[in-house]
Design brief:
Order of helices and strands: EEEEEHEHEEEE
Helix content: 10-25%
Shape: globular
Strand content: 25-35%
Family: Belongs to the CheD family.
Catalytic activity: L-glutaminyl-[protein] + H2O = L-glutamyl-[protein] + NH4(+)
Number of helices: 2
CATH architecture: 2-Layer Sandwich
EC number: 3.5.1.44
Organism: Thermoanaerobacter kivui
Oligomer: single chain
Strand order of the largest sheet: 1-3-8-9-10
CATH class: Alpha Beta
Function: Probably deamidates glutamine residues to glutamate on methyl-accepting chemotaxis receptors (MCPs), playing an important role in chemotaxis.
Distance between the termini: 24 Å
Length: 162
């Protein structure tokens, strides 16, 4: 059976069963969150842009935020047979893409996204088994539901599986 590739845009999510591949590009300050049930080989990927939906007035796209995006992803995975108690996660992104002399929360969105992602996953009891977070460079990721590998590709920093 051939791998089907599912492209996930910004503030978007997709789920698949093995042998599907989930991919997203343009992870700068955004965070790509992969959830995986290793027994059923069901995987989901959400590309979040902001930490918390309750901190912003225009929060109509729930996939844009760590708190609501992860919850929606879990619900979609459960619909096709994933067990939420078995889920593990891999995360990538959360970079600080622009240097600033102003050390403000607004300019540090990548770090805030990474912190919120970890808080939400911890609260839900989903362990993070691998991460590639921070730095000042963008990432493209590909998750292989067949075996749970996450390929992180960068410009200038190479590619690696985590």
């Amino acid at each position: 059976m051939e791998n089907k590739i599912y492209r996930v845009g910004m503030a978007d999510a997709k789920v698949t069963q093995s042998p599907g591949i989930l991919t997203t590009i343009g992870l700068g300050s955004c965070v790509g969150i992969v959830l995986y049930d290793p027994l059923t080989k069901i995987a989901g990927l959400v590309h979040i842009m902001l930490p918390y939906s309750n901190k912003i007035s225009d929060n109509s796209n729930k996939l844009k935020f760590a708190d609501t995006g992860i919850q929606i992803l879990i619900e979609e995975m459960v619909k096709i047979g994933a067990n939420p108690k078995r889920l593990v996660s891999k995360i990538a992104g959360g970079a600080q893409m622009f240097s600033s002399k102003i050390n403000s929360d607004i300019m540090n969105i990548g770090e805030r996204n990474a912190i919120a992602t970890k808080e939400v996953l911890n609260k839900l009891g989903i362990p993070i088994i691998a991460e590639d977070i921070g730095g000042n460079y963008g990432r493209t990721i590909e998750f292989y539901s067949e075996d749970g590998r996450l390929l992180v590709k960068t410009i200038g920093y190479g590619s690696k599986y985590i």
